Amino acid sequence: MKISKLSLTLIIIIALTCTVLPAHLAAQGRDPAATATPGAATPEASPEAVGERIDLAAMALDSNAIPPEFQLIYESYISADSLGLRLGGIIEPQEVAATGLRWYYESSYSTPDGTAQIRSYLQEYSDEQGATDGFALFEDETRLVPDAAFTDEPGPGVGEEPSEITIGSYLETVPETGPTTIDITYLVGRIIAGVSMDSAAETTVDREFALELAGALEERINAVLGGEPLSSIDQTIPERLVGLGESWEVTNEGYWVIPEIYGPETPPEIVAGFESGYFRADAFDPERAGGFPLPRLAISVAKFNNEQAPLVLLSNLETIQPMYIALEQVDLEPIPGSSVTLGYQFANTYMSDASVDSFRVISLTGSTMVTIDVQGNGSAEAARAAAVEIATAQLACVSSADPCQVDSFPDSLFANPSTPVAGDPVG
After folding, report:
1. Cα–Cα distance, 364 to 370 (Å, whole number)
2. Partners of 192 in the β-ladder
3. 28 neighbors 371 (Cβ within 8 angstroms)
4. Identical fold, 47-225 and 238-413
5. Residue 252 in contact with residue 281, Cβ under 8 Å?
6. CA separation for the pair 193, 56 (Å, rounded)
7. 164 near 155, Cβ under 8 Å?
8. Alpha-carbon distance 187 to 201, whole Å?
9. Which residues lie below 8 Å from residue 356, measured CB to CB, with a gap of 6+?
10. Average per-residue pLDDT in the chain?
C-alpha cells in the first residue's frame, strides 16, 4: 500500500506537487527533463523583512537529517495567492489573505516504493498574530480532512505556542497496527513550522523520530533567523540566479546536497569539496492556460571549495548518474568566462515520441558549476540557442559578488507549444 495523502497543512494542493515531482532530479542531472526558474530571487533571511521573503528553503530539513533510504521528491515555494486559489472551496482565498500569509515552503522525501514519506514545511506570515491566526485556520483537521481519524495532542515542547501533535490516519479509523500519520506543528515567531510523517497501513509511524526531526527543524529555523551558518547552505547563491520573466511559473526550488543528487557512491573528492547547491525550476506559460506547458527549464548552481572537485564530477558524469535515452554530446563553443563548457541535445521526456527539442549546457567557472536545461523548446536549434544565452548570463552572474541584475529574457527566445499531443508526459 502506497501513501497517497500529503501533510495536513497542505492536503488540498496535491495537483501542484504532482507537477513538480521530476523537476529537482531534472535540474541536477538524474534526468535531462528540465523545468524552469522563477524570476524572483530569494534574499538572505531577515525576520523583519517586508518586501522580501525569509529564506524558508534554508530552514527546511535536508537529507543530512533524513534516513538514507528516503529520496528527495520535491521542494518548492508557494505564494499566498497561489495557495489561496488552490484551496478554494474548502478555505477561501480571502480567508488565507486575512492571516497575512506570505509564503509556504515544503520539502518532501519518500522511500522508493512510496510506502513512507517525510516532509518539513514552513509558513511565513507578516506578523506573529497572523501566524497564530494561520495556525487556527490550517490546523483545523475537521475542516480540511473531515473523514480522517486524527487526534490532536499537546505540543511537543518545541518552538512556541500554539503547537500540537496530530496523530492518527487518513482512513476513517486507525489501523490495528497503530497510527500511520504524525504531524507536529509549532510557531517560531511569525513562522509556522512542522514535520509530517506518513507510513503504509501495516507500519506505525516512529513518534520519537518525528519529535527528533521537529527539534532539528527548530534549530535550523533559529540558525537562519540568527544569521548563523548552516552546513551546505550558501545564501548568496539564490541572489545570483538569473530571472526568466513574467511568462514563467515556478514549479520547484531549493538548496540541494550531494547525496540527494548523485547518491552514496559519489567519489569522496566531490563530497569533500562540495559547499552548496541551489536550483530553480519552472515552466513557460505566458497565457497561464493550464495544461502541461512547454518549454521547461532548470537552472542549477553548485559551489565547491576547490577547482578539482567539479572537474572530478564532470569526468565521472556517466558513472554517478544514469545514462539518458537519446542524450547526445555535441560540440559547443566555450562560454565567455568558463574553463569548461559541455553541450548535450536530447528529446524531451514529457512527450513519448518527441523529436530532439531540448538542450543542456554544463559550464564551469573557477570552482562553481552551472547547469542549464531547456526542454521542449520546439527544435534542437531553438533549445540550444536558449540554453546558451541563459547559461552565458548565468555564468556572468555567479562570477559577480553582487546580486544578479538579469530578471527576464525575451519570450521570442522560447517556443510556446500547446499541451503535448504526441503522447502522455513521461518525465
Report:
1. 6
2. 123, 187
3. yes
4. yes
5. yes
6. 10
7. yes
8. 30
9. 326, 328, 345, 346, 347, 379, 380
10. 83
* CB-CB contact of 240 with 397 (8 Å): yes
DSSP-assigned beta bridge partners for residue 167: 151, 182
> Under CATH, what is the fold of the domain 238-413?
Protein Transport Mog1p; Chain A (3.40.1000)
The three cell numbers locating residue 28: 541536477
CB-neighbour burial class of residue 280 (10 A; exposed 0-12, middle 13-18, buried 19+) = buried
| CA dist., res. 46 & res. 218, Å (int) | 16
pLDDT in tens, 316-326: 887 776 666 67
Q: Give the helix/strand (H/E) hosting 416.
A: none
Identify the bridge partners of residue 184 per DSSP, sorted by sequence position. Answer: 165, 195
Contact 61, 220 (CB under 8 A): yes
pTM: 0.84
Q: Could you give the CA distance from residue 183 to residue 164 in angstroms, rounded to a whole number?
A: 8
pLDDT score at 24: 30
CATH superfamily to which 47-225 belongs? PknH-like extracellular domain (3.40.1000.70)
DSSP annotation string for 289-318? --S--S-EEEEEEEEESSSHHHHHHHHTHH
Q: What is the dihedral of CA 126, 132, 135, 138, to 10 degrees?
A: -60
Using CB atoms within 10 A of its CB, is residue 62 exposed (0-12), middle (13-18) or buried (19+)?
A: buried
CA distances from 106 to 174, 253, 398 (A): 26, 10, 26
- State the amino acid at position 138 in one-letter form: F
Query: In the chain, what are the domain boundaries?
Result: 47-225, 238-413
In this structure, the number of other CB atoms found within 10 A of the CB of residue 44 comes to: 15
